[in-house]
Amino acid sequence: MQIGAHLREDDDPLATAEELGIDVFQMFVTDPQGWNKPVPRPDAAAIAASPIDVVVHSSYQINVASLNNRLRMPSRKAVEQQAAAAAELGALGLVVHGGHLRDGEQSGLGFENWRKLFERQQDKGGFGVPILIENTAGGDHAMARTLESIERLWDAVGDFEQAGFCLDTCHAWAGGEDLIGLVERVRAITGRIDVVHLNNSRDEFDSGRDRHANLADGSIDPDVLVGVITAAQAPVVLETPAPGIPDDLAYLRDSL
Known about the structure:
Largest sheet: 8 strands, parallel, barrel
Strand order of the largest sheet: 1-2-3-4-5-6-7-10
Order of helices and strands: EHEHEHEHEHEHHEEEHEH
Keywords: DNA damage, DNA repair, Hydrolase, Metal-binding, Zinc
Cofactor: Zn(2+)
Number of strands: 10
Family: Belongs to the AP endonuclease 2 family.
Number of helices: 9
Distance between the termini: 9 Å
Protein name: Deoxyribonuclease IV
Pfam family, one: AP_endonuc_2
C-alpha cells in the first residue's frame, strides 16, 4: 500500500518526500486560492521520473457544477490547465472537489455540468490525467456530500474512463456517512476508489465542518481509519496538520 502526505507550499516536494520516506505525495501546481495558470516547474522531469508517485490537488475555488457562467467557465479552464500540468509531472490524477449549487437551483443541472466537463474535453482528446472527484463535507446543495448525491453524479459521469474518485475520510464523517463499510458502499456506486485522503476530524459526526485532525487526535477512532484504507487498497494521502504528519506516518506503518 502506498502511503504519503500532502506537502504544502514546498519548493522541493520531492526532497521532502524522500526525507519522509513516503511512497506518494500530493501537491498543488498553482496558487490554491487563485485562478493563475500553472507555470512550468524546473523539477517536473525529476518528479515524473521519480519512483515516488504524485497526486495533484486542484485549486479550491473551482466549481464545475456551478450554474453561474462567471464561475463555471473559468472552473472548466482551470481543470484543463491543472490537469495538463499534472500530466507533465506524471501524476496519478487531479483531485477536484465535487462543487455545489446555490439555494433554489436544480441539482440535476449541476450534475449535467459535470458531464459537460468530460464531454467538452473528450472533443479535445481528453485530459492528461484522470479527474478524481472528491467527496465534500458540508452544504445542503453539494454535488458529492452524500452517497445519494455521489450516485447521481456518477450517473452523469461514470461512463467516462477519466472520471475517478477520491475518498476523504474527514469529509465523509463530517458529511454524515458511517465509515464502517463505506468503501464497499462507494465502490458499489463508482466501481473505483483511486486515492484516499486519510484525515481524522476535529468535529463530531455529521457536523458539516471540514476541519482535519491528526490520526490520534480527532473524533474518529483511528482503527476505523485504518480499516478504511485496508479495504480501499488505494494510495493513501494524509492531509493532516503538518507538525503531526511524521507521527501519523509512523502510526500507519505500525498498524499495517
